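Sorry, explain these tokens?

***
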Amino acid sequence: MVTLQFLATWARERMRGTDRERGDVPGWVMVTVMTAILVVAILAVFEPQLKDAIGSALDSVTGSK
């Protein structure tokens, strides 16, 4: 009987949209946007060094000089 009551309560909450496990969508959007801004800022500052490092790594793998 307890299981049936739990399922009924769960179904009622799902239909009302008060499910607490849905997550915080605006929070995730903010985290995603802030991460993208951080990546762009890092690339803007370290672009020449990253190009040199990647170029050197590719040259060492392919054997180019």
